[in-house]
Amino acid sequence: MTTTANRPPAKPSARRTPTGAAQRLEPLAERLLGGGLPVRVRMWDGSEAGPEDAPTVHVRSRRALRRLLWEPGELGLAEAYITGEIDLDEDLGDGLRAMRRAMDERGLTPPAPSLADRLSAAGTALRLGAVGLRPPVPAARSGLRGALHSKARDRAAISHHYDLSNAFYALLLDETMAYSCGYWTSDAPGYGPADAQRDKLELICRKLGLRPGARLLDIGCGWGSLTLHAAQQHGVRVTAVTLAAEQAAYVREQVTARGLEELVEVLNIDYRDIAERPETRGTYDAVSTIEMGEHVGDAEYPAFTRILHDSLRPQGRVLVQQMSRGSNAPGGGAFIESYIAPDMHMRPVGETVGLLEGSGLEVRDVEALREHYVLTVDAWRRTLEERWAEFVALVGEETARVWRLYLVGGALAFEERRMGVDQILCVRPDRAGKAAMPATRREWYGASEADR
Asked: What is the rounded distance in angstroms from the CA atom of residue 229 to the CA atom of residue 160?
């Protein structure tokens, strides 16, 4: 019998490796990603994993894991950020850029999770106490119903984004209230977003060849930046069309304030209703549609281009400014389509050119403005950050975080060529094939720039 007195001394125990939430999740995350973690992860219990020199993602709550179990992928991650369950140490743009770079450098292409992966994830979440009821969906998420691109559903989709409030957009945008890509013609000190927007509006008017007394149909007029510029600066008679009630009210107020009642008519209607107005068929000298075509839908786009064609008189021009996607990029995405622009559709610019030509229009010029959109979105984002407290007071923190994620992600998409934006100028030739287009671009840019 061995007594305590003659028992051999115990060997010192080996130091145990910490097993916090980060260490429990790391093997699963690496398997789902198809490689090592591209970021540093800090969990709610203080544990960390991943490269020390990488951007740090804070998972502040078990609810973030629960949300990802219910909504795996982009949308679940976006909603965890919107609700503050996930955050970054770095500037969000720098953090997302670094994460994408790390993924590209390591060649990480996340495979679709298998059933075994899902079961493993559920088991790990259970051990971490993260299993439970589905977390509430953020209030800013759209909840559209009805047939895709029916008039009622399209009105709801447009209202979701553009009727957020005129006060919100007045805070975000410059005094032109132009919510589309600017045209940045200078890097001189003092040149800013409003200048770039005015230069864009003037470029459109020149491309359309607008003269006093000309008739312009502005489809998707927004807050009236082009409508008001064309009427006030060029004496053009404008029919402005928008489906957003808040926008229509704002433009009407501006028309009255500027004394433009005899030149501008504002219609709060669906673009499809234009075809039902016989007085507008073939009567316009020009048609503009500035970043509205993304909302039309894929199946509906040929009918949209016919409306553009049929609204023009022979030799009339149409300018489409529209976002596009890269040939191998999806465009939109779950977050954008759920929170920003429901039911939007983007295609490569070449496909849009083909659809416009299919309606009988002749495409005469395509100008890519992709880099200009990086500058434009960055300007909006700076305003959001500089006036963050005002935005939160106006729309709440979750909606403000939606817009931060939207603007940061949008700028990156244009920067990385996953998205583009183009001005496409078309003409409706007459029966003899005459287009009455200028022989050169001198009228648009001036001789020196056009000849470069």
From this structure: 27
**What pTM value is reported for the model?**
0.89
Place of tokens 């996340």: 110
Do residues 331 and 349 make contact, with C-beta atoms less than 8 angstroms apart?
Answer: no
Q: Would you place residue 35 in the very low, low, confident or very high pLDDT band (cuts 50, 70, 90)? A: confident
CB distance 343 to 154 below 8 Å: yes
Question: Judging by DSSP bridges, how do beta strands 312-325 and 284-290 pair with one another?
Answer: parallel
Q: Which one has a higher pLDDT value, 294 or 55?
A: 294
pLDDT band per the 50, 70, 90 thresholds, residue 399 = very high
What is the band of 166 on the pLDDT scale with cuts at 50, 70, 90? very high
Question: What is the DSSP annotation of 286-320?
Answer: EEEEES-GGGT-TTTHHHHHHHHHHHEEEEEEEEE
- Continuous segment of H or E residues that includes residue 285: strand 284-290
Strand pairing category for 215-219 and 86-88: unpaired
Q: Are 186 and 449 in contact (CB under 8 A)?
A: no
Pairing verdict, β 237-241 and 312-325: unpaired
Q: Tokens at residue 163, please?
A: 């009727």
Task: List % helix, strand, coil for the chain (3-state, nearest 5).
Answer: 45, 15, 40
What angle, rounded to 10 degrees, do the helices at 397-415 and 74-82 form? 130
Neighbours of 346 (CB within 10 A): 24
DSSP letter for each residue of 241-273: E-S-HHHHHHHHHHHHHTT-TTTEEEE-S-GGG
In the beta sheet, which residues pair with residue 88? 57
Alpha-carbon distance 289 to 353, whole Å? Answer: 14
- Sort 212 into a burial class: Cβ within 10 Å, 0-12 / 13-18 / 19+: exposed
Closest CA to 120 of 83, 76, 72, 75: 72
Query: Which two three-digit tokens encode residue 13?
Result: 């125990």
